[in-house]
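Dear colleague,

Thank you for sharing your sequence with our group. We've completed the structure prediction you requested, and as agreed, I am returning the results in plain text so they can be pasted directly into your records. Please verify that the sequence below matches your submission; if there's any discrepancy, let me know and we will rerun it promptly.
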Amino acid sequence: ENLPEWMHFRSPYRQPLLFLEEVGRRLQPYLGPGRVQFGQGIAPLKIQAGGPAQCPLYVAPDGFLAQAPATDYEWEYESANSLEAMGYRRVAAWSADWWRNPGLEAKKMASFIIRQENRIAEEEE
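Please find the predicted structure tokens below.
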């Protein structure tokens, strides 16, 4: 806190994370209230499981967790493994596709999530 101004470094995360906020906002109507959660941490956009035997998800923009011009692949690997150890599965959101047609991409991602959940529910029966 008492450091000179020149010693303060900008966060490697683009603030605010507008792309993830947009993805979350567009997914919300399809997945129901409270399931899409935007917060802090390695994976700011998480989607809570739709049922007891289903896995929660995290959204990885362009397939990566780091929101920086470059990333360390070992860090990506370890971060993804730690999220998977907590029970999360990755869902990639490709920014170029979302930029072209965000409504369609939201429908496609929500459809993918719902189909995965239905498949898991059918396997249990």
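Summary note from our side: Residues 89 and 113 are 11 Å apart (CA to CA).

Kind regards,
the structure core
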